[in-house]
User: What shape does this take?
Amino acid sequence: MIPELLPALLAFAFVTVITPGPNNFMLMASGANFGFRRTVPHMLGIGLGFPAMCFCVGLGVMRLFDLWPPLYTILTVLSVGYMLFLAWKIANAAAPEKGGQGPATGKPLSFFEAASFQWVNPKAWSMALSAITLYASGRSLGAVLWVVAAYVACSAISTTGWTALGTQLRRFLQQPARLRVFNWTMAGLLVASLIPVILR
Assistant: This one.
């Protein structure tokens, strides 16, 4: 990648990670339900897992779709199924115990769970394929590493911002009814993000 493309790459990476999508909806919900500190492993899983995915795509994983087209359909089905499961978990993440009292149930995603999620996240695949095609079309190791570095830097900003936004909502969401509405709204947005994938 020529140096003149670096500002464009950084702008592309920032826009793609900061805009609403499955990762960001889940981070905001986690921040609201579990707080910033407990969401850090989730943040790191996204912030390092997605660039690692970009690296693998740049080294040739995307050729698997050319060699065996049904793989894309399989990935889509797995993506939809797993994201529906995660939406259910978000909707029930902080359901109060009987009587409306007691601690919240559920737990935030771990580092490994968040990193693994990138491989079944349709938006992540779209971002990775686009970034490699646009900014590392020759698939040289240097160009791929520039794409990876751009996403590490931009993901740090995005994951921190969306989690912080969620934590700022915690005081307002202390009432169980409000928290329930928030969680179901986040779950609904996560499911809605699947519509372009299903209709494709």
